[in-house]
Structure formats: structure tokens, C-alpha cells
Amino acid sequence: MEETIDSAFVQQLNQNAGIARKVGRIYFPDADDREDALQEMMYQLWKSYPRFDRRSKFSTWMYSVCLNTALTYRRRLKNKKTEPLSSTHHAIADQSPENHEESIAMLFDAVSELSSLNKAIVLLYLEDMSYEEIAAVTGLSRSNVSVRLVRIKKELEILLKKDN
After folding, report:
1. Mean pLDDT across the stretch 104-119?
2. Most exposed residue of 47, 77, 82, 122, measured as fewest CB within 10 angstroms of its CB?
């Protein structure tokens, strides 16, 4: 029985591995911190899998675990690191919208300036989750998700214009 659970978990984890990478990219600009956080996410997913009750999709549950782990891990990092990043760490050499990768990098930089909850909402929204699914993962109401998304879009517009 346990081998079946293990193989089912690994199969679902492999199918949804991008979720942890996306959460890591949003919350941890530093590659070393991101790798450590990803390991912690995998551990927390494994540890909590027996409690996964299948009332939601595996991907929704995985987002919830990964986001909670990222927030906890980030708090621990913040307590350890007291020196803020300088603005040069966020500089982008060529901000031409023609270059897709640079545009994505600019978006990630802007998203990194949002509050932790708003980062989670943006990530879930970009994954084409419904407002109901986003509400389930974040613990907000559907209408609160809707209002927050409107405000987040305006905030991101301002942040992206500021960087240009």
C-alpha cells in the first residue's frame, strides 16, 4: 500500500513540478535561497501528503503547501539577513519589450515588490486558476480575490512604468 502511495505522490509531483519552481522564482530572487526553499517545499509536500484529502485538485493543494512553505522560509531568511538588496541587484541591462525573457524578468522584479499575499495571488492568477481556486488556496473570499487583482494590476503597472 505504501509503495502505491509513494508512486502516486511522485507521479503527481512530477506532473506539477513547475508549481514549486514558480513559487520559488517569485519569492526568492537569489538562486541559492531558491534552491534551499525548493528543497524545503519538497520536504513539506512529502511530509503532508498523507493528509491530502483530495477535496481539491493536487495542483491546488500543492500551491497551498508551496506558498505556505515559501512564506515561512522567507520569514526565517529575513530574520537572518539584515542587509537589504541594493537597487543594482534589480537593474535590468536592456528593458526592451521585444525581448521576451527580459520582459518576464521585469515582471518578476515588479512582482517581487508586492506583499507576500499579493505575490501568491498573482502567481495563482498567472496559472489560470479561477477566482474560487485562488480563494481556496489563499483563504480569501472570491470577491476579495477579485478586488485584490484589480488593485494588484494597477500596482504592477506603476512598478513597471517606474522601472522604464
Report:
1. 86
2. 82
